[in-house]
Amino acid sequence: MLNILKSTVDPFLAQSETETLRSLKWTHGEVERLFGKVRDFWEREQKAQAPPLDAKIKERTRLWLDAISFYTFHLIRLVVIPNCSQGDEMAKHISQLLDEVEGFGQQVTKDGRGFFQDVVVARSAMLKLRPGGYPALKTEIADLLRSPDQDRILVGVIGLFAWVCSVRSMNIKPPPPSLVQHLGHLILSRRPEPMRYALYSGEIIVRWMPKLIDEAFKSTTCLGLRFLLKEAEYRDDEDDTRALIPYALVPQIREYAARFAHTLKLSGVEDNAITEWMIKANNDPLPMVRRAVTLSTVPITALAFSPDGQQIAASGYHEITFWKTADGVLDHRVAGLSERTYGIV
After folding, report:
1. Which of 7, 205, 317, 331 is deepest in the core (most CB within 10 A)?
2. 261-273: per-residue pLDDT in tens?
3. pTM of the full predicted structure?
4. By three-state DSSP, how is residue 326 classified?
C-alpha cells in the first residue's frame, strides 16, 4: 500500500497546472479506492470477531489510514499548492480530498490524532489557493485548542505551528494574535503534553513572528513559567503519582521552558519568572538545559550598524536580527532569507 501511495506523488512532478489538476483528479480516485480497501478490511474483521475488536486489527487499520493521510498531506502541501496559482477548481478538489481523509478516518478509528493532524496542516497551506478560507481555518484551530480532548489540542497546536511555517514558506496571511494567546493558556493548563507542545511552538513563534505576541500572551506565558519553576523541579521518586509532570518529561519541559524564557528575554520581556529560569538553567545539571539559555551557535557572517547608531544588524540562519545598541535587546527580525547572509548594507 505504501508503494501505491508513494507512486501518487510522481505524476505531479514537472507538469503544467492543467496536467497537475488532471493528476489530482486521478489521485482523488486512487485515494477513494484505497479507502475502499481499508473499509472492506475493517468491515470483514468486524463481522469475523466478536466485540471488542482485536487491538492489532485496530492498529493495522490506523497505520493504513496514517499512511494515506501522510502521503495525501505531502502531495497537497508540498507539491500541488506551491506549483499552482489560485483556482477554485483546484481548491475544490483538494478540499474534498481532505474532507474524505478526515471523515473516513474519524469513522474507523474514533481518534483524531494521526490523520486529522495532517489534514489541519494541509489546510493551513490551502490559504495559498483560497485566501478566503482564513476565517474558517482560524475557527477550526481555535476550536481544537479549546477542546477538552488532549489529542485534539495537540492537533490544534501543530496546526497553528504549521500555519506560521506556511507564512514563511508560502507568503500567506499570518494567524491572528488572539489564536496565539491560546498557547499561553495551554502552558497554564496543567496538562503535560499540551504544555510541552505549547512551550516548543510558542518559543519559535516569538522568535520568528514577534508581531503576533501581545501583552495578554506575555502575561499568561510568564504566569505559566512561574508555575513551572516548582512543578518542573527534579525529584528522586519517579513513581510519585502526585506530581503534575511525569518523571520522564521533566528534562524536556525544563529545556523548553528555559529556551522560552531566554527568547522572551531577548525580545525585551521582563518578568521575575524569566530571570529565575535563566539562573536555574545556567546551573542545571543537564547540558541540554544549560544550552537552552546560551546565545545561538549559528555563526554570524555579517554585521552592520544603522546610520544613527541606534541599532546593529546581525546575520543569522535564514534571517537578519536587529538589536538595540543601548541595552542589547532584540528589536525585530527579518525572516525568510537565504541560509547565510554575507553582507549587510
Report:
1. 205
2. 998 988 888 899 9
3. 0.68
4. coil
Residues 122 and 25 in one domain: yes
Nine-digit cell string for 218: 506575555
**Sequential DSSP letters for 107-141:** HHHS--SHHHHHHHHHHHHGGGT-GGGHHHHHHHH
**203 and 259 Cβ atoms separated by less than 8 Å:** yes
Within the chain, where are the H helices?
A: 2-7, 17-48, 55-74, 88-109, 114-125, 134-145, 150-170, 177-187, 192-208, 215-231, 250-266, 272-282, 287-291
Which residue pairs, CB below 8 angstroms and at least 24 apart, start in 234-238? 234/285
Give the domain-ending residue among 144, 174, 204. Answer: 174
Give the chain's end-to-end CA distance (angstroms, integer): 53
* Domain, as residue range, for 236: 176-294
Residues 124 and 163 sit within 8 Å (Cβ to Cβ)? yes
Determine, yes or no, domain membership for 342. no
Say how many residues make up the chain.
345
